Amino acid sequence: xxxxxxxxxxxxxxxxxxxxxxxxxxxxxxxxxxxxxxxxxxxxxxxxxxxxxxxxxxxxxxxxxxxxxxxxxxxxxxxxxxxxxxxxxxxxxxxxxxxxxxxxxxxxxxxxxxxxxxxxxxxxxxxxxxxxxxxxxxxxxxxxxxxxxxxxxxxxxxxxxxxxxxxxxxxxxxxxxxxxxxxxxxxxxxxxxxxxxxxxxxxxxxxxxxxxxxxxxxxxxxxxxxxxxxxxxxxxxxxxxxxxxxxxxxxxxxxxxxxxxxxxxxxxxxxxxxxxxxxxxxxxxxxxxxxxxxxxxxxxxxxxxxxxxxxxxxxxxxxxxxxxxxxxxxxxxxxxxxxxxxxxxxxxxxxxxxxxxxxxxxxxxxxxxxxxxxxxxxxxxxxxxx
Amino acid sequence: xxxxxxxxxxxxxxxxxxxxxxxxxxxxxxxxxxxxxxxxxxxxxxxxxxxxxxxxxxxxxxxxxxxxxxxxxxxxxxxxxxxxxxxxxxxxxxxxxxxxxxxxxxxxxxxxxxxxxxxxxxxxxxxxxxxxxxxxxxxxxxxxxxxxxxxxxxxxxxxxxxxxxxxxxxxxxxxxxxxxxxxxxxxxxxxxxxxxxxxxxxxxxxxxxxxxxxxxxxxxxxxxxxxx
Lengths: 386, 228
Known about the structure:
- The complex is a heterodimer of chains A (about 375) and B (about 230).
- By secondary structure, chain A is α+β, with helices and mostly antiparallel strands.
- Chain A is about 45% helix and about 10% strand.
- Chain A has two domains: about 1-55, no CATH class; about 65-385, Cytochrome-c3 Hydrogenase, chain B (Orthogonal Bundle).
- In chain A, a hairpin with a 2-residue loop joins strand 3 and strand 4 (about 50-55).
- In chain A, helix 2 (about 75-80) packs antiparallel against helix 3 (about 90-105) and helix 5 (about 145-165) packs antiparallel against helix 7 (about 195-205).
- The two termini of chain A are about 25 Å apart.
- Chain B has a domain at about 45-170: 2-Layer Sandwich (Beta Polymerase, domain 2), CATH 3.30.460.80.
- In chain B, the strands form two sheets. Chain B has a six-stranded mixed sheet. In chain B, strands 7-8 form a two-stranded parallel ribbon.
- The longest helix of chain B has 12 residues, at about 155-165.
- Chain B starts with about 50 loop residues before the first strand and ends in a 56-residue tail after the last strand.
- The interface between A and B is large, with 49 and 53 residues.
Protein backbone atom coordinates (compact mmCIF):
# COMPACT_ATOMS: atom_id res chain seq x y z
CA UNK A 1 0.00 0.00 0.00
CA UNK A 2 2.93 2.29 0.69
CA UNK A 3 3.96 2.07 -2.96
CA UNK A 4 0.90 4.00 -4.05
CA UNK A 5 1.52 7.30 -2.32
CA UNK A 6 0.43 10.18 -4.51
CA UNK A 7 3.31 12.27 -5.69
CA UNK A 8 5.44 9.60 -7.24
CA UNK A 9 5.14 10.64 -10.83
CA UNK A 10 6.68 7.67 -12.49
CA UNK A 11 8.67 4.80 -11.13
CA UNK A 12 10.17 1.71 -12.57
CA UNK A 13 8.76 -1.42 -11.02
CA UNK A 14 11.43 -3.91 -10.04
CA UNK A 15 8.91 -6.68 -9.56
CA UNK A 16 7.22 -8.74 -12.19
CA UNK A 17 8.59 -10.64 -15.15
CA UNK A 18 9.97 -8.56 -17.99
CA UNK A 19 7.93 -8.49 -21.18
CA UNK A 20 9.61 -8.35 -24.57
CA UNK A 21 12.86 -8.03 -22.74
CA UNK A 22 11.81 -4.68 -21.34
CA UNK A 23 10.75 -3.82 -17.85
CA UNK A 24 7.19 -2.80 -17.17
CA UNK A 25 6.85 0.72 -16.00
CA UNK A 26 4.38 2.01 -13.46
CA UNK A 27 2.84 5.28 -14.47
CA UNK A 28 0.52 7.64 -12.66
CA UNK A 29 -2.31 8.99 -14.78
CA UNK A 30 -3.93 11.81 -12.85
CA UNK A 31 -5.29 12.83 -10.37
CA UNK A 32 -4.54 16.18 -11.98
CA UNK A 33 -4.92 15.38 -15.63
CA UNK A 34 -7.07 17.29 -18.09
CA UNK A 35 -8.79 14.23 -19.50
CA UNK A 36 -9.73 12.42 -16.30
CA UNK A 37 -12.86 14.59 -15.96
CA UNK A 38 -12.17 15.46 -12.37
CA UNK A 39 -9.83 13.98 -9.85
CA UNK A 40 -9.44 10.39 -10.92
CA UNK A 41 -6.09 8.69 -10.53
CA UNK A 42 -5.12 5.63 -12.50
CA UNK A 43 -2.05 3.61 -11.69
CA UNK A 44 -0.98 2.13 -15.00
CA UNK A 45 1.42 -0.68 -15.66
CA UNK A 46 2.68 -0.12 -19.15
CA UNK A 47 4.89 -2.10 -21.45
CA UNK A 48 6.10 0.61 -23.73
CA UNK A 49 2.92 2.31 -24.92
CA UNK A 50 0.69 -0.65 -24.16
CA UNK A 51 -1.34 -0.91 -20.98
CA UNK A 52 -0.76 -4.11 -19.04
CA UNK A 53 -3.05 -3.15 -16.20
CA UNK A 54 -4.88 -0.06 -15.00
CA UNK A 55 -5.92 0.41 -11.41
CA UNK A 56 -8.29 3.27 -10.58
CA UNK A 57 -7.68 5.10 -7.33
CA UNK A 58 -10.70 7.15 -6.31
CA UNK A 59 -12.01 9.02 -3.31
CA UNK A 60 -10.39 12.43 -3.85
CA UNK A 61 -13.82 14.05 -3.89
CA UNK A 62 -15.37 12.05 -1.05
CA UNK A 63 -17.57 14.39 0.97
CA UNK A 64 -19.44 11.90 3.11
CA UNK A 65 -22.74 12.64 1.40
CA UNK A 66 -24.38 9.47 2.68
CA UNK A 67 -23.40 10.40 6.23
CA UNK A 68 -24.86 13.88 5.75
CA UNK A 69 -28.14 12.42 4.48
CA UNK A 70 -28.64 10.83 7.90
CA UNK A 71 -28.54 14.20 9.62
CA UNK A 72 -31.11 15.98 7.44
CA UNK A 73 -34.88 15.67 7.41
CA UNK A 74 -36.41 14.16 4.29
CA UNK A 75 -37.11 17.41 2.39
CA UNK A 76 -33.66 18.75 3.29
CA UNK A 77 -31.93 15.86 1.55
CA UNK A 78 -32.98 16.98 -1.94
CA UNK A 79 -30.34 19.73 -2.39
CA UNK A 80 -27.63 17.29 -1.31
CA UNK A 81 -28.54 14.98 -4.15
CA UNK A 82 -27.79 17.80 -6.63
CA UNK A 83 -24.14 17.47 -5.76
CA UNK A 84 -23.80 13.83 -6.69
CA UNK A 85 -23.82 13.93 -10.47
CA UNK A 86 -23.60 17.68 -10.73
CA UNK A 87 -24.17 17.83 -14.46
CA UNK A 88 -27.47 15.95 -14.16
CA UNK A 89 -29.10 17.23 -11.00
CA UNK A 90 -32.70 16.72 -12.13
CA UNK A 91 -32.40 12.95 -12.37
CA UNK A 92 -30.70 12.82 -8.95
CA UNK A 93 -33.58 14.76 -7.38
CA UNK A 94 -36.00 12.51 -9.18
CA UNK A 95 -34.52 9.22 -7.99
CA UNK A 96 -34.48 10.36 -4.38
CA UNK A 97 -38.04 11.71 -4.47
CA UNK A 98 -39.23 8.47 -6.07
CA UNK A 99 -37.80 6.44 -3.20
CA UNK A 100 -39.51 8.56 -0.55
CA UNK A 101 -42.78 8.67 -2.48
CA UNK A 102 -42.71 4.91 -2.81
CA UNK A 103 -42.47 4.35 0.92
CA UNK A 104 -45.11 7.04 1.59
CA UNK A 105 -47.38 5.54 -1.05
CA UNK A 106 -47.87 8.87 -2.84
CA UNK A 107 -49.44 9.01 -6.27
CA UNK A 108 -48.34 12.07 -8.23
CA UNK A 109 -50.74 14.26 -10.20
CA UNK A 110 -50.31 13.88 -13.95
CA UNK A 111 -49.04 17.41 -14.44
CA UNK A 112 -46.26 16.95 -11.90
CA UNK A 113 -45.24 13.74 -13.66
CA UNK A 114 -45.02 15.49 -17.01
CA UNK A 115 -43.02 18.39 -15.60
CA UNK A 116 -40.62 15.96 -13.99
CA UNK A 117 -40.14 13.97 -17.16
CA UNK A 118 -39.68 17.16 -19.16
CA UNK A 119 -36.96 18.32 -16.74
CA UNK A 120 -35.33 14.88 -16.81
CA UNK A 121 -35.15 14.77 -20.56
CA UNK A 122 -33.83 18.31 -20.88
CA UNK A 123 -31.22 17.28 -18.35
CA UNK A 124 -30.38 14.18 -20.36
CA UNK A 125 -29.83 16.30 -23.46
CA UNK A 126 -27.60 18.72 -21.57
CA UNK A 127 -25.64 15.88 -19.97
CA UNK A 128 -25.17 14.03 -23.24
CA UNK A 129 -24.05 17.11 -25.16
CA UNK A 130 -21.61 17.88 -22.36
CA UNK A 131 -20.31 14.33 -22.68
CA UNK A 132 -20.00 14.76 -26.41
CA UNK A 133 -18.09 18.01 -25.99
CA UNK A 134 -15.61 16.66 -23.47
CA UNK A 135 -15.14 13.25 -25.05
CA UNK A 136 -14.44 14.87 -28.40
CA UNK A 137 -12.03 17.39 -26.92
CA UNK A 138 -10.16 14.51 -25.25
CA UNK A 139 -9.50 13.08 -28.67
CA UNK A 140 -8.44 16.39 -30.17
CA UNK A 141 -11.69 17.50 -31.78
CA UNK A 142 -12.19 20.94 -30.29
CA UNK A 143 -15.03 22.19 -32.51
CA UNK A 144 -17.90 20.13 -31.04
CA UNK A 145 -17.20 21.73 -27.68
CA UNK A 146 -18.26 25.17 -28.90
CA UNK A 147 -21.20 23.85 -30.88
CA UNK A 148 -22.67 21.79 -28.07
CA UNK A 149 -22.23 24.41 -25.38
CA UNK A 150 -24.45 26.66 -27.44
CA UNK A 151 -27.36 24.25 -26.83
CA UNK A 152 -26.41 23.44 -23.28
CA UNK A 153 -26.44 27.14 -22.48
CA UNK A 154 -30.06 27.43 -23.65
CA UNK A 155 -31.07 24.45 -21.51
CA UNK A 156 -29.36 25.91 -18.46
CA UNK A 157 -31.13 29.22 -19.09
CA UNK A 158 -34.44 27.36 -19.22
CA UNK A 159 -33.62 25.67 -15.93
CA UNK A 160 -32.71 29.02 -14.46
CA UNK A 161 -36.07 30.46 -15.46
CA UNK A 162 -37.87 27.49 -13.95
CA UNK A 163 -36.12 27.02 -10.63
CA UNK A 164 -33.51 29.73 -10.32
CA UNK A 165 -30.48 27.49 -10.59
CA UNK A 166 -28.47 26.31 -13.55
CA UNK A 167 -26.60 23.30 -12.20
CA UNK A 168 -27.71 22.41 -8.68
CA UNK A 169 -31.35 22.56 -9.60
CA UNK A 170 -33.22 21.35 -6.51
CA UNK A 171 -36.15 21.22 -8.91
CA UNK A 172 -38.22 18.44 -7.36
CA UNK A 173 -39.97 18.07 -4.07
CA UNK A 174 -41.28 15.02 -2.32
CA UNK A 175 -44.74 14.65 -3.81
CA UNK A 176 -44.23 16.75 -6.92
CA UNK A 177 -42.38 19.81 -8.10
CA UNK A 178 -41.88 23.00 -6.09
CA UNK A 179 -43.35 25.53 -8.52
CA UNK A 180 -45.71 25.78 -11.40
CA UNK A 181 -44.19 26.53 -14.78
CA UNK A 182 -43.57 30.22 -15.49
CA UNK A 183 -45.81 31.73 -18.19
CA UNK A 184 -44.53 31.08 -21.68
CA UNK A 185 -41.91 28.60 -20.48
CA UNK A 186 -43.33 25.56 -22.24
CA UNK A 187 -43.56 27.50 -25.50
CA UNK A 188 -39.91 28.45 -25.14
CA UNK A 189 -38.90 24.84 -24.49
CA UNK A 190 -40.87 23.82 -27.54
CA UNK A 191 -39.31 26.52 -29.70
CA UNK A 192 -35.90 25.32 -28.55
CA UNK A 193 -36.54 21.59 -28.99
CA UNK A 194 -38.30 21.77 -32.35
CA UNK A 195 -35.25 22.73 -34.46
CA UNK A 196 -32.86 20.79 -32.24
CA UNK A 197 -32.73 17.90 -34.66
CA UNK A 198 -30.79 20.09 -37.11
CA UNK A 199 -28.23 20.69 -34.38
CA UNK A 200 -27.88 16.97 -33.73
CA UNK A 201 -27.33 16.45 -37.45
CA UNK A 202 -24.63 19.08 -37.27
CA UNK A 203 -22.80 17.22 -34.48
CA UNK A 204 -23.07 14.00 -36.38
CA UNK A 205 -21.70 15.70 -39.49
CA UNK A 206 -18.67 16.66 -37.46
CA UNK A 207 -17.97 13.24 -36.00
CA UNK A 208 -19.96 10.25 -37.24
CA UNK A 209 -18.11 9.86 -40.53
CA UNK A 210 -15.01 11.68 -39.39
CA UNK A 211 -11.99 9.51 -40.25
CA UNK A 212 -9.95 10.49 -37.23
CA UNK A 213 -12.90 10.04 -34.85
CA UNK A 214 -13.62 6.60 -36.28
CA UNK A 215 -9.99 5.52 -36.07
CA UNK A 216 -9.78 6.64 -32.48
CA UNK A 217 -13.02 4.97 -31.36
CA UNK A 218 -13.88 1.89 -33.41
CA UNK A 219 -12.74 -1.27 -31.64
CA UNK A 220 -11.52 0.68 -28.61
CA UNK A 221 -12.58 -0.28 -25.10
CA UNK A 222 -14.77 -3.24 -25.92
CA UNK A 223 -17.08 -4.40 -23.13
CA UNK A 224 -19.45 -7.11 -24.32
CA UNK A 225 -23.01 -7.53 -23.10
CA UNK A 226 -22.02 -10.43 -20.82
CA UNK A 227 -19.18 -8.39 -19.33
CA UNK A 228 -21.46 -5.40 -18.85
CA UNK A 229 -23.97 -7.45 -16.89
CA UNK A 230 -21.28 -9.19 -14.86
CA UNK A 231 -19.77 -5.82 -13.89
CA UNK A 232 -23.18 -4.24 -13.30
CA UNK A 233 -22.60 -1.69 -16.05
CA UNK A 234 -25.78 0.08 -17.16
CA UNK A 235 -26.76 3.01 -19.33
CA UNK A 236 -25.27 3.78 -22.74
CA UNK A 237 -22.41 1.22 -22.36
CA UNK A 238 -24.97 -1.56 -21.90
CA UNK A 239 -27.11 -0.39 -24.83
CA UNK A 240 -23.96 0.08 -26.90
CA UNK A 241 -23.38 -3.64 -26.36
CA UNK A 242 -26.73 -4.48 -27.90
CA UNK A 243 -28.85 -4.96 -24.77
CA UNK A 244 -32.19 -3.21 -25.14
CA UNK A 245 -32.59 -2.28 -21.51
CA UNK A 246 -33.58 1.02 -20.05
CA UNK A 247 -35.21 1.59 -16.65
CA UNK A 248 -37.71 3.95 -18.29
CA UNK A 249 -39.15 0.92 -20.09
CA UNK A 250 -38.03 -1.99 -17.90
CA UNK A 251 -39.28 -0.66 -14.54
CA UNK A 252 -41.43 2.27 -15.65
CA UNK A 253 -41.96 5.28 -13.44
CA UNK A 254 -43.97 8.50 -13.81
CA UNK A 255 -45.67 8.92 -17.19
CA UNK A 256 -43.08 7.12 -19.33
CA UNK A 257 -45.48 4.31 -20.33
CA UNK A 258 -47.68 6.93 -22.03
CA UNK A 259 -44.83 8.41 -24.03
CA UNK A 260 -43.68 7.24 -27.40
CA UNK A 261 -39.92 6.72 -27.65
CA UNK A 262 -37.46 4.00 -28.56
CA UNK A 263 -34.46 2.52 -26.83
CA UNK A 264 -31.56 2.74 -29.29
CA UNK A 265 -29.03 -0.09 -29.30
CA UNK A 266 -25.89 -0.80 -31.28
CA UNK A 267 -24.16 -4.15 -31.42
CA UNK A 268 -20.40 -3.63 -31.36
CA UNK A 269 -19.82 -2.70 -27.71
CA UNK A 270 -16.98 -0.30 -28.52
CA UNK A 271 -16.43 3.40 -27.96
CA UNK A 272 -17.86 4.32 -31.35
CA UNK A 273 -21.12 2.45 -30.72
CA UNK A 274 -21.50 4.04 -27.32
CA UNK A 275 -21.14 7.38 -29.09
CA UNK A 276 -23.86 6.37 -31.56
CA UNK A 277 -26.15 5.28 -28.71
CA UNK A 278 -25.81 8.67 -27.03
CA UNK A 279 -26.47 10.50 -30.29
CA UNK A 280 -29.60 8.41 -30.84
CA UNK A 281 -30.68 9.03 -27.25
CA UNK A 282 -30.44 12.77 -27.84
CA UNK A 283 -32.99 12.43 -30.62
CA UNK A 284 -35.26 10.27 -28.46
CA UNK A 285 -35.03 12.72 -25.58
CA UNK A 286 -36.03 15.51 -27.95
CA UNK A 287 -39.08 13.48 -28.95
CA UNK A 288 -40.04 13.04 -25.30
CA UNK A 289 -39.54 16.74 -24.60
CA UNK A 290 -41.87 17.64 -27.47
CA UNK A 291 -44.52 15.19 -26.29
CA UNK A 292 -44.35 16.59 -22.76
CA UNK A 293 -44.60 20.15 -24.09
CA UNK A 294 -47.68 19.23 -26.13
CA UNK A 295 -49.32 17.59 -23.13
CA UNK A 296 -48.55 20.55 -20.87
CA UNK A 297 -49.86 23.03 -23.44
CA UNK A 298 -53.06 21.03 -23.69
CA UNK A 299 -53.43 20.68 -19.91
CA UNK A 300 -52.18 23.94 -18.41
CA UNK A 301 -54.19 23.54 -15.21
CA UNK A 302 -53.81 20.91 -12.61
CA UNK A 303 -52.15 20.05 -9.37
CA UNK A 304 -48.36 20.02 -9.29
CA UNK A 305 -48.04 18.33 -5.93
CA UNK A 306 -49.57 15.32 -4.29
CA UNK A 307 -50.97 15.59 -0.78
CA UNK A 308 -47.73 14.92 1.03
CA UNK A 309 -47.81 15.09 4.81
CA UNK A 310 -46.39 18.28 6.31
CA UNK A 311 -43.88 16.38 8.38
CA UNK A 312 -42.57 13.44 6.45
CA UNK A 313 -42.24 10.41 8.66
CA UNK A 314 -42.41 7.20 6.64
CA UNK A 315 -43.15 3.92 8.36
CA UNK A 316 -40.23 1.71 9.27
CA UNK A 317 -39.10 -0.24 6.27
CA UNK A 318 -36.73 -0.20 3.36
CA UNK A 319 -37.29 0.67 -0.23
CA UNK A 320 -35.27 1.04 -3.41
CA UNK A 321 -36.21 3.23 -6.35
CA UNK A 322 -34.26 3.91 -9.50
CA UNK A 323 -34.39 6.14 -12.54
CA UNK A 324 -32.55 6.02 -15.82
CA UNK A 325 -29.98 8.76 -15.31
CA UNK A 326 -27.86 9.87 -18.29
CA UNK A 327 -25.05 7.66 -16.95
CA UNK A 328 -27.06 4.54 -16.16
CA UNK A 329 -29.21 3.20 -13.37
CA UNK A 330 -29.29 5.68 -10.52
CA UNK A 331 -30.97 4.24 -7.45
CA UNK A 332 -31.63 5.25 -3.88
CA UNK A 333 -31.95 2.64 -1.16
CA UNK A 334 -33.79 4.17 1.76
CA UNK A 335 -34.02 2.63 5.21
CA UNK A 336 -36.50 4.31 7.50
CA UNK A 337 -36.90 3.65 11.21
CA UNK A 338 -40.06 5.73 11.45
CA UNK A 339 -38.24 8.98 12.21
CA UNK A 340 -38.18 12.23 10.26
CA UNK A 341 -34.68 11.63 8.92
CA UNK A 342 -33.51 8.76 6.75
CA UNK A 343 -31.90 6.14 8.96
CA UNK A 344 -29.72 5.15 6.05
CA UNK A 345 -29.79 6.42 2.49
CA UNK A 346 -27.58 4.68 0.02
CA UNK A 347 -26.93 5.95 -3.48
CA UNK A 348 -26.44 3.38 -6.20
CA UNK A 349 -24.17 5.51 -8.34
CA UNK A 350 -23.93 4.50 -12.00
CA UNK A 351 -20.59 6.28 -12.49
CA UNK A 352 -18.93 4.40 -9.63
CA UNK A 353 -20.12 1.04 -10.81
CA UNK A 354 -19.42 1.68 -14.50
CA UNK A 355 -15.92 2.91 -13.66
CA UNK A 356 -15.18 -0.44 -12.08
CA UNK A 357 -15.07 -2.01 -15.53
CA UNK A 358 -12.39 0.40 -16.77
CA UNK A 359 -9.41 -1.94 -16.16
CA UNK A 360 -11.22 -4.59 -18.19
CA UNK A 361 -11.76 -2.16 -21.05
CA UNK A 362 -8.29 -0.62 -20.98
CA UNK A 363 -6.26 -3.83 -20.97
CA UNK A 364 -4.02 -4.11 -24.03
CA UNK A 365 -4.81 -0.68 -25.44
CA UNK A 366 -2.39 2.21 -25.94
CA UNK A 367 -2.06 4.93 -23.33
CA UNK A 368 -3.58 7.42 -25.76
CA UNK A 369 -6.66 5.19 -26.13
CA UNK A 370 -7.13 5.22 -22.37
CA UNK A 371 -8.28 8.81 -22.75
CA UNK A 372 -10.99 7.67 -25.15
CA UNK A 373 -12.01 4.89 -22.77
CA UNK A 374 -12.31 7.17 -19.74
CA UNK A 375 -14.37 9.51 -21.88
CA UNK A 376 -16.67 6.80 -23.14
CA UNK A 377 -17.76 5.62 -19.68
CA UNK A 378 -18.99 9.15 -18.94
CA UNK A 379 -18.10 9.44 -15.27
CA UNK A 380 -18.70 12.35 -12.97
CA UNK A 381 -16.39 12.17 -10.00
CA UNK A 382 -18.89 13.85 -7.71
CA UNK A 383 -20.99 10.75 -8.06
CA UNK A 384 -18.11 8.27 -7.99
CA UNK A 385 -16.74 9.58 -4.70
CA UNK A 386 -19.93 10.97 -3.14
CA UNK B 1 -25.53 -15.33 14.10
CA UNK B 2 -27.60 -18.49 14.48
CA UNK B 3 -30.21 -16.60 16.40
CA UNK B 4 -31.44 -13.94 14.03
CA UNK B 5 -34.30 -12.43 15.97
CA UNK B 6 -33.82 -8.69 16.01
CA UNK B 7 -35.64 -7.44 19.06
CA UNK B 8 -33.65 -4.45 20.47
CA UNK B 9 -34.59 -0.74 20.12
CA UNK B 10 -34.27 0.40 16.51
CA UNK B 11 -36.64 -2.02 14.85
CA UNK B 12 -35.04 -3.26 11.66
CA UNK B 13 -37.01 -2.58 8.50
CA UNK B 14 -39.89 -4.81 7.70
CA UNK B 15 -39.52 -7.05 10.74
CA UNK B 16 -42.91 -8.57 11.28
CA UNK B 17 -45.60 -6.60 9.49
CA UNK B 18 -46.04 -4.05 12.26
CA UNK B 19 -45.87 -0.34 11.48
CA UNK B 20 -44.16 1.73 14.19
CA UNK B 21 -45.93 1.85 17.50
CA UNK B 22 -47.53 5.36 17.54
CA UNK B 23 -50.85 4.03 16.19
CA UNK B 24 -53.79 4.87 18.48
CA UNK B 25 -53.01 2.78 21.53
CA UNK B 26 -55.88 0.95 23.27
CA UNK B 27 -55.40 2.40 26.81
CA UNK B 28 -56.10 5.99 25.67
CA UNK B 29 -59.70 6.10 24.40
CA UNK B 30 -60.89 6.61 27.98
CA UNK B 31 -60.94 10.42 27.77
CA UNK B 32 -62.08 11.39 24.23
CA UNK B 33 -64.27 8.36 23.75
CA UNK B 34 -66.92 10.11 21.72
CA UNK B 35 -64.50 11.67 19.26
CA UNK B 36 -63.25 8.43 17.78
CA UNK B 37 -65.77 5.63 17.94
CA UNK B 38 -63.46 2.62 17.85
CA UNK B 39 -61.72 3.49 14.59
CA UNK B 40 -59.82 0.51 13.29
CA UNK B 41 -56.07 1.11 13.70
CA UNK B 42 -55.37 2.42 10.23
CA UNK B 43 -51.77 1.79 9.17
CA UNK B 44 -49.96 5.03 8.35
CA UNK B 45 -48.34 3.58 5.29
CA UNK B 46 -47.53 0.38 3.50
CA UNK B 47 -47.32 -2.78 5.57
CA UNK B 48 -44.91 -5.65 5.11
CA UNK B 49 -46.49 -8.97 4.25
CA UNK B 50 -45.18 -12.49 4.24
CA UNK B 51 -43.66 -13.53 0.92
CA UNK B 52 -42.63 -17.14 1.51
CA UNK B 53 -45.07 -18.18 -1.19
CA UNK B 54 -43.24 -16.11 -3.79
CA UNK B 55 -42.10 -18.59 -6.47
CA UNK B 56 -38.42 -17.61 -6.33
CA UNK B 57 -38.38 -17.82 -2.54
CA UNK B 58 -40.21 -21.15 -2.57
CA UNK B 59 -37.74 -22.65 -5.01
CA UNK B 60 -34.83 -21.23 -3.01
CA UNK B 61 -36.24 -22.86 0.13
CA UNK B 62 -36.56 -26.15 -1.68
CA UNK B 63 -32.97 -26.07 -2.95
CA UNK B 64 -31.36 -24.73 0.24
CA UNK B 65 -33.76 -25.49 3.12
CA UNK B 66 -31.68 -23.89 5.87
CA UNK B 67 -30.88 -20.73 3.91
CA UNK B 68 -34.18 -18.85 4.19
CA UNK B 69 -34.91 -17.38 7.61
CA UNK B 70 -37.86 -15.28 6.49
CA UNK B 71 -39.24 -13.56 3.43
CA UNK B 72 -41.15 -10.30 3.45
CA UNK B 73 -42.78 -8.18 0.83
CA UNK B 74 -42.82 -4.44 1.41
CA UNK B 75 -44.05 -1.89 -1.19
CA UNK B 76 -43.83 -4.60 -3.81
CA UNK B 77 -40.20 -5.46 -3.06
CA UNK B 78 -39.31 -8.90 -1.75
CA UNK B 79 -36.65 -9.20 0.93
CA UNK B 80 -35.24 -12.57 1.93
CA UNK B 81 -33.44 -12.91 5.22
CA UNK B 82 -30.43 -15.21 4.85
CA UNK B 83 -27.82 -16.40 7.38
CA UNK B 84 -24.40 -14.94 6.60
CA UNK B 85 -22.78 -18.36 6.33
CA UNK B 86 -25.03 -19.34 3.42
CA UNK B 87 -24.98 -16.09 1.49
CA UNK B 88 -22.60 -17.31 -1.21
CA UNK B 89 -24.66 -20.46 -1.81
CA UNK B 90 -27.85 -18.44 -2.01
CA UNK B 91 -26.30 -15.98 -4.46
CA UNK B 92 -24.91 -18.80 -6.60
CA UNK B 93 -28.31 -20.47 -6.66
CA UNK B 94 -30.10 -17.27 -7.59
CA UNK B 95 -27.58 -16.39 -10.27
CA UNK B 96 -27.26 -19.80 -11.89
CA UNK B 97 -30.71 -21.31 -11.43
CA UNK B 98 -32.91 -18.23 -11.31
CA UNK B 99 -31.02 -16.01 -13.78
CA UNK B 100 -30.42 -13.13 -11.40
CA UNK B 101 -27.37 -12.21 -13.42
CA UNK B 102 -27.10 -8.56 -12.47
CA UNK B 103 -26.09 -7.45 -8.99
CA UNK B 104 -27.68 -4.01 -8.78
CA UNK B 105 -26.37 -2.97 -5.43
CA UNK B 106 -24.64 -4.18 -2.32
CA UNK B 107 -24.60 -2.11 0.81
CA UNK B 108 -24.86 -2.25 4.58
CA UNK B 109 -26.90 -0.74 7.40
CA UNK B 110 -25.59 -0.14 10.91
CA UNK B 111 -28.13 -0.89 13.69
CA UNK B 112 -25.76 0.20 16.44
CA UNK B 113 -27.49 -1.43 19.44
CA UNK B 114 -28.83 -4.51 17.74
CA UNK B 115 -27.25 -7.94 17.71
CA UNK B 116 -25.96 -8.68 15.11
CA UNK B 117 -25.00 -5.09 14.55
CA UNK B 118 -24.99 -4.85 10.74
CA UNK B 119 -27.23 -5.79 7.87
CA UNK B 120 -25.54 -6.45 4.56
CA UNK B 121 -28.04 -5.93 1.76
CA UNK B 122 -27.91 -7.35 -1.76
CA UNK B 123 -30.26 -6.23 -4.52
CA UNK B 124 -30.45 -8.57 -7.52
CA UNK B 125 -31.99 -8.19 -10.93
CA UNK B 126 -33.01 -10.71 -13.55
CA UNK B 127 -33.19 -9.67 -17.19
CA UNK B 128 -34.78 -12.95 -18.25
CA UNK B 129 -37.53 -12.97 -15.65
CA UNK B 130 -39.26 -9.87 -16.86
CA UNK B 131 -37.04 -7.52 -14.85
CA UNK B 132 -37.80 -9.13 -11.54
CA UNK B 133 -35.81 -7.97 -8.55
CA UNK B 134 -35.15 -9.51 -5.16
CA UNK B 135 -33.34 -8.30 -2.08
CA UNK B 136 -31.24 -10.41 0.23
CA UNK B 137 -30.39 -9.34 3.73
CA UNK B 138 -27.98 -10.92 6.12
CA UNK B 139 -27.04 -9.99 9.67
CA UNK B 140 -23.33 -9.62 10.44
CA UNK B 141 -21.97 -8.97 13.92
CA UNK B 142 -19.24 -6.43 14.59
CA UNK B 143 -15.78 -7.91 13.95
CA UNK B 144 -17.38 -10.87 12.23
CA UNK B 145 -16.49 -11.62 8.62
CA UNK B 146 -19.10 -11.84 5.91
CA UNK B 147 -18.36 -14.19 3.01
CA UNK B 148 -17.58 -12.28 -0.17
CA UNK B 149 -19.76 -12.67 -3.24
CA UNK B 150 -17.16 -11.13 -5.54
CA UNK B 151 -16.62 -14.63 -6.89
CA UNK B 152 -20.25 -14.73 -7.99
CA UNK B 153 -20.55 -11.28 -9.58
CA UNK B 154 -17.46 -9.28 -10.49
CA UNK B 155 -19.48 -6.15 -9.74
CA UNK B 156 -19.42 -6.97 -6.02
CA UNK B 157 -15.71 -6.17 -5.84
CA UNK B 158 -15.87 -2.40 -5.40
CA UNK B 159 -19.20 -2.48 -3.59
CA UNK B 160 -17.71 -4.73 -0.91
CA UNK B 161 -14.62 -2.57 -0.73
CA UNK B 162 -16.85 0.41 -0.11
CA UNK B 163 -18.78 -1.37 2.64
CA UNK B 164 -15.48 -2.46 4.20
CA UNK B 165 -14.18 1.10 4.04
CA UNK B 166 -17.25 2.87 5.40
CA UNK B 167 -18.59 0.24 7.82
CA UNK B 168 -15.57 -1.88 8.66
CA UNK B 169 -17.22 -5.15 7.69
CA UNK B 170 -14.59 -7.63 6.54
CA UNK B 171 -15.49 -9.74 3.54
CA UNK B 172 -13.68 -13.06 3.71
CA UNK B 173 -12.42 -14.32 0.40
CA UNK B 174 -12.39 -10.89 -1.25
CA UNK B 175 -9.45 -10.68 -3.68
CA UNK B 176 -8.45 -7.08 -2.95
CA UNK B 177 -10.02 -5.76 0.24
CA UNK B 178 -8.60 -2.24 0.55
CA UNK B 179 -10.14 1.08 1.46
CA UNK B 180 -11.62 2.77 -1.57
CA UNK B 181 -13.13 6.17 -0.74
CA UNK B 182 -11.00 7.14 2.24
CA UNK B 183 -7.25 6.77 2.10
CA UNK B 184 -5.04 3.90 3.18
CA UNK B 185 -4.16 4.48 6.82
CA UNK B 186 -7.41 6.27 7.70
CA UNK B 187 -8.64 5.29 11.15
CA UNK B 188 -12.32 4.59 11.64
CA UNK B 189 -15.33 3.81 9.47
CA UNK B 190 -17.39 6.91 8.64
CA UNK B 191 -20.83 5.39 8.09
CA UNK B 192 -20.93 3.68 11.48
CA UNK B 193 -23.45 5.39 13.69
CA UNK B 194 -20.83 6.09 16.36
CA UNK B 195 -18.57 7.98 13.95
CA UNK B 196 -19.09 11.74 14.44
CA UNK B 197 -20.69 13.58 11.55
CA UNK B 198 -18.22 16.44 12.05
CA UNK B 199 -15.41 14.05 11.27
CA UNK B 200 -12.30 13.35 13.27
CA UNK B 201 -8.95 14.99 13.46
CA UNK B 202 -6.82 12.56 11.54
CA UNK B 203 -3.71 14.25 12.91
CA UNK B 204 -1.89 13.88 9.64
CA UNK B 205 -1.44 17.61 9.19
CA UNK B 206 -0.77 18.47 12.83
CA UNK B 207 1.63 15.74 13.84
CA UNK B 208 3.44 14.95 10.61
CA UNK B 209 6.42 13.59 12.50
CA UNK B 210 4.38 11.23 14.66
CA UNK B 211 2.00 9.82 12.15
CA UNK B 212 2.87 8.55 8.72
CA UNK B 213 1.68 10.49 5.71
CA UNK B 214 -2.02 9.84 5.23
CA UNK B 215 -2.35 8.10 8.58
CA UNK B 216 -3.68 9.37 11.86
CA UNK B 217 -4.15 8.60 15.53
CA UNK B 218 -5.68 5.24 16.28
CA UNK B 219 -9.06 5.21 18.08
CA UNK B 220 -7.48 4.88 21.54
CA UNK B 221 -4.81 7.57 20.96
CA UNK B 222 -5.25 10.57 23.29
CA UNK B 223 -4.44 12.93 20.42
CA UNK B 224 -7.48 11.84 18.50
CA UNK B 225 -10.18 14.47 18.84
CA UNK B 226 -13.56 15.13 17.42
CA UNK B 227 -13.27 18.28 15.35
CA UNK B 228 -16.36 20.24 16.40
